[in-house]
Design brief:
The complex is a heterodimer of chains A (225) and B (253).
Chain A (H helix, E strand, L loop, with lengths): L2 H7 L1 H26 L9 H12 L1 H32 L13 H4 L1 H24 L5 E4 L2 E4 L1 H8 L3 H28 L8 H29 L1
Chain B lengths: L2 E10 L8 E10 L4 H14 L21 E3 L2 E2 L21 E6 L7 E3 L2 E2 L2 H9 L20 H11 L6 H5 L6 H12 L2 H4 L2 H14 L10 H5 L7 H16 L5
Parallel strand pairs in B: 1-5
Antiparallel strand pairs in B: 1-2, 3-4, 3-5, 6-7
Helix pairs in contact in B: 2-7, 3-5, 5-7, 5-9, 7-9
The chains are: A mainly alpha (225), B alpha+beta (253).
Chain lengths: 225, 253
């Protein structure tokens, strides 16, 4: 094997891939949130639909979005591999459990990840897949025919179980981020008494605010639209 | 001196090939005994009853050798922070308590007998680190190599690791990264160890992986249960050393 594959397949190399893909996904979450907040604009969906059209037709954005799908898959597959290898490396569990000074989030990243994955399947299946396979109605804005994703979102967010599933998925995301954000920096080797408290603070704020921002959408649509 | 009557559940296992199980014993101890002295009382009792005594490791009994290795009520080295099993005293338990004692658990630490596990994987990690370049002969003058205070303090903190393996035992992933990073840090931070630092990091991490330890997921149980309170900063230092060394050392022949 070359030095590069040796590097990436080492324990620290694998962790580095988890960290970098995780950080990319953290960045994606923020941009995805900012774009989607246009759903809240009360204009019958024109701003959001125009934005969705731009996101699915701009070549650069399309490359980034396929990169994003790839990073989600990589983060997931590697995470599950590490989880199963870690279970094997532990072997027999203790008869008496005791967790001094550790968070529930840090010990359950794989479980939370699987919940988030289930949420992604629901989310992509309901919006992305239906849009890509032509199951979404269209509207005309001037000369351009645009898929009316806004109406589709509004319909889905009137269904109680979908709203509940979104809120559960977002809660899992919040807990996953609570550990994942700071953990990604530790894996990169960035831990110092000067800036680690700042990273932890930003991570905690991020893990609360971003999922909360997402949660506003199904709640607003279910109760107020 | 107040006596205490304890119920002690101990993991008994003849060898690695035979499955083990818990046995329950009644032990009369007193609050001034160390945990190991309580185990000695139990063993004396077992010998009198013509049973096999419980095998456990111990050596210095003053918290500096790293030989003692029990998981007491689910915590490596027991409930007291920054304390080895031998320095844990029975006054931290109550009369009538039930105490569960298990061996350090990890695939890389196979059970030899009862509470004794094979921790030689950690020795092989140290051996893989190789040498440091110093002149032999007469001892060097104390201050002939200037060392920055901050580096000296951090190196010394890392060097307090006694290699007991409690980090591996406490880690839900069976990872040895706190141990390995402490060893890498205590040499790498000092001018004497800087010369081979990159290659030492690469070799020690490779050996650690080969021994079948798990992957660190930054849970922090290792540092919380470490009798010497080795900090997670060491793992971060090892990570950046490893990343740096992988990208900057010469191609292997």
């Amino acid at each position: 094997m070359s030095w590069f594959t040796n590097f990436l397949t080492s324990s620290i190399g694998k962790k580095l891939l988890m960290s970098l893909t995780g950080l990319f996904l953290i960045l994606f979450l923020k941009i995805h949130l900012l774009g989607n907040l246009q759903l809240l604009k009360d204009d019958g969906g024109e701003a959001f639909n125009t934005y969705a059209y731009f996101m699915t037709h701009n070549p650069l954005i399309m490359v980034i979005s396929y990169g994003n799908y790839f990073f989600i898959l990589l983060h997931m597959l590697l995470g599950l591999t590490l989880w199963s290898k870690n279970r094997a490396a532990k072997g027999q569990a203790y008869a008496v459990g005791n967790h001094r000074d550790t968070t529930w989030a840090s010990r359950n990243m794989a479980l939370l990840g699987i919940l988030i994955l289930a949420f992604i399947f629901l989310h992509m299946g309901d919006f992305w897949w239906k849009m890509k396979t032509g199951q979404t109605a269209v509207v005309m804005y001037g000369e351009t025919e645009v898929k009316d994703l806004y109406t589709k979102v509004a319909e889905s967010f009137k269904v109680l179980w979908i709203v509940v599933a979104y809120l559960i998925g977002l809660l899992a995301l919040a807990i996953h981020l609570y550990h994942g954000f700071a953990s990604a920096f530790q894996t990169l080797g960035l831990n110092h008494s000067k800036y680690t408290p700042v990273i932890r603070f930003i991570g905690t704020a991020y893990s609360i605010l971003v999922p909360l921002g997402y949660a506003i959408m199904p709640i607003v649509f279910y109760f107020f639209r | 001196m107040s006596d205490m009557k304890l119920t002690v559940k101990v993991w008994r296992q003849k060898n690695n090939a035979t499955p083990g199980k818990f046995e329950t014993y009644q032990v009369m101890a007193n609050e001034h005994m160390s945990f190991l002295e309580m185990m000695d009382v139990l063993n004396e009792q077992l010998v009198h009853e013509k049973h096999q005594p419980v095998a456990f490791e111990h050596d210095c009994r003053e918290g500096i050798c790293g030989a003692c290795s029990m998981v007491i009520n689910g915590q490596a080295h027991g409930p007291l922070q920054a304390t080895t099993t031998c320095q844990l005293h029975m006054r931290h338990f109550k009369d009538g308590d039930t105490i569960t004692v298990e061996p350090f658990r990890a695939k890389a630490f196979p059970v030899i007998k009862d509470l004794v596990v094979d921790r030689s994987a950690l020795d092989r990690v140290i051996q893989s680190g190789g040498f440091i370049s110093v002149n032999t002969g007469q001892a060097v003058d104390g201050n002939s190599i200037p060392i920055e205070k901050d580096a000296a303090v951090k190196a010394f903190d890392a060097a307090t690791c006694i290699g007991c393996g409690a980090c591996v035992a406490a880690c839900p992933n069976g990872s040895a990264m706190l141990f390995t990073s402490a060893k890498i840090s205590h040499l790498g931070l000092l001018p004497q160890g800087k010369i081979e630092h990159k290659n030492r990091t690469l070799k020690m991490v490779a050996q650690m992986d080969k021994e079948g330890f798990g992957f660190c997921s930054n849970i922090g149980a290792c540092s919380a249960e470490c009798p010497k309170e080795i900090s997670l900063e060491n793992i971060a230092r090892m990570n950046r050393s490893f990343i740096g060394a992988s990208l900057t050392t010469g191609k292997p022949e």
